[in-house]
Specification:
single chain; mainly alpha; two-stranded antiparallel ribbon; 2 strands; about 0% strand
Length: about 400
């Protein structure tokens, strides 16, 4: 039960403020399980500008913190990252793809198309998308645990134990501090890097790269962005922060993602978006305000400006298995939610279909499968109610 603010003393108020600040800091880095593997993978196979990449994440996250004032995260676009890692597509094509995706999102936002789509989506499909996002997070977490099962098992156990105590809001922060400290002890301390001033290199989109960018990056990524980075985050935010339903909308999420990619892609930033999974993880581990993305953004900006390419040595200190534990816990909680158990059999079938296809293929295909099944279900109900079918036969 929440305390009555009118009966709180000044000491109580300070304690609650400190608790919230620690919760936001804790949640700020809870989403590194998505960020680190993709960013490190991209930088391993291609000579991307580390400075521009980190500064891009930092500026986008700070913008998100200012505009939404809630833990609306910034993540690398997963399909683009996977394609870059698997094919070795270079920075120029990626910059072109980022600009095209950004322009498309802005167009969908200003024309109202994205808002119309969000109003048309039924609750069963949205719940199924949340199920898919949760299961995907948990599965990614399990894969990260595989890097060190002992650390992962200890981390999961510790997180579960802290969920039942008053230290729940700082569970992620405590885990990351302890895991990083342990890694530093094992590896002999902080890597020998010295700060300096690093600035991003300009990477202008080229007309000759447009065809490759559209075919290889834009077409695979755009459906995922619309579902997992625009529609799903808005739906999840509406349930987590009901009072902000007019601020965190599909239209605004599409517009902010589009504008920032348009502006930052030529500065060496990797294509970015707002992730549904990141919102879930940050909220699960204590983030409630824009301080969470602000802390993450300031960290990325500081690392990019002060350490440039050497920043990856510092990020590599964090045990990835500990980050995997955060994803397992948060993903499981999102997947197993109240709507799943309260749904009627017909609705539950749509939810499970959407979720399972979303996990086995991708969120966009899951959305299409769920919508098709929901339209078929509604058609069948109307036919039965009109007397066109005898349900007893």
């Amino acid at each position: 039960m929440k305390p009555n603010r009118d009966s709180l003393t000044a000491s109580d108020e300070r304690y609650l403020r400190l608790r919230q600040v620690l919760g936001d800091i804790s949640g700020a880095f809870a989403d590194l399980g998505t960020f680190l593997p993709l960013v490190i993978g991209v930088l391993t196979v291609q000579r991307f500008d580390v400075t521009g990449l980190l500064i891009g994440f930092g500026m986008f996250a700070l913008f998100s913190a200012t505009v939404y004032r809630r833990p609306v995260p910034v993540q690398p676009m997963k399909a683009v990252a996977a394609i870059v890692i698997s094919t070795g597509i270079g920075p120029e094509v990626v910059a072109t793809g980022g600009v095209i995706i950004g322009a498309t999102l802005v167009l969908l936002a200003v024309t109202g198309a994205i808002g119309a789509l969000s109003r048309w989506l039924p609750q069963t499909v949205l719940t199924g998308i949340q199920l898919a996002v949760g299961l995907h997070l948990a599965l990614v977490g399990v894969r990260l645990l595989d890097s060190d099962w002992l650390v992962g098992a200890i981390a999961v156990t510790g997180l579960l134990a802290l969920q039942q105590t008053r230290f729940r809001p700082v569970a992620a922060l405590a885990l990351l501090v302890l895991a990083t400290s342990w890694s530093l002890v094992l590896n002999g301390g902080v890597p020998p890097v010295s700060p300096a001033l690093y600035l991003p290199h300009l990477t202008l989109p080229a007309g000759t790269d447009i065809g490759t960018a559209i075919q290889s990056l834009v077409l695979p990524q755009l459906p995922l962005t619309l579902t997992n980075a625009v529609l799903a985050p808005a739906a999840i935010a509406a349930s987590l922060f009901p009072g902000d339903s007019t601020r965190i909308t599909p239209r605004r999420l599409a517009l902010s993602s589009g504008l920032l990619n348009l502006f930052l892609a030529p500065l060496g930033a990797f294509p970015m978006c707002h992730g549904a999974g990141g919102l879930v993880v940050q909220h699960k581990f204590g983030a409630r305000t824009g301080l969470a993305p602000a802390v993450f953004g300031a960290t990325c900006l500081g690392l990019g400006l002060a350490f440039g390419p050497n920043a990856m040595l510092l990020l590599g200190v964090l045990p990835i298995a500990a980050v995997g534990a955060l994803l397992v816990i948060a993903g499981g909680e999102l997947a197993i939610n109240k709507r799943l158990f309260d749904a009627k059999p017909g609705c539950l079938a749509i939810i499970l279909l959407t979720g399972s296809v979303g996990v086995m293929v991708n969120i966009a295909v899951g959305l299409f499968a769920g919508l098709s099944a929901e339209l078929l279900r509604r058609w069948w109900i109307r036919r039965v109610q009109s007397g066109g079918v005898n349900p007893g036969k």
